Write the structure tokens for this entry.
Amino acid sequence: DSGVTQTPKHLITATGQRVTLRCSPRSGDLSVYWYQQSLDQGLQFLIQYYNGEERAKGNILERFSAQQFPDLHSELNLSSLELGDSALYFCASSVLSGGAPDEQYFGPGTRLTVT
Amino acid sequence: TQLLEQSPQFLSIQEGENLTVYCNSSSVFSSLQWYRQEPGEGPVLLVTVVTGGEVKKLKRLTFQFGDARKDSSLHITAAQPGDTGLYLCAGEKGNTPLVFGKGTRLSVIA
């Protein structure tokens, strides 16, 4: 158990809908990352938050947004869903202290199926 | 362009065999991490290497960071079915987020 929790575990929804994925980081971790993993694309970095502020953006679509709340949990919002958005979505957290390697701990993921 | 290239993509071996998988780049990294991911689960951090030439051992797994900090290898001795999974390397450069390779999918057959 990494200490990172994600809900829900599975999500099935229709095209055009909107969903929210939730992540709680390990106790003490200030940084949260969101990744998308599909069979052909590998693990794609979407976005990073650090202590409530957006820190880095990767290949995140405009239809997707995220935020990190004062209690450090994070939510990833996916809207106007398309079939191609079906994937595993992972949240990871890290301490991210200056000078030390950024060792990330991953949650169990949310499997999103868009029908 | 994939910053980190992992090879081979797929590897299927018999229990008891040795194997090496590679993670290569033309870029220099401040650190490199290896993760193992089992089907339907999140990646689990195995090791972090920081110094060029560094070798770390984790039971039957040996990790090496290249002298120039551009590449790494993972060697497994006497592979067991429990070693089956997707092995991902991830490199860190300064303050930018980790860059992940696409992984090596290992299958160890009993």
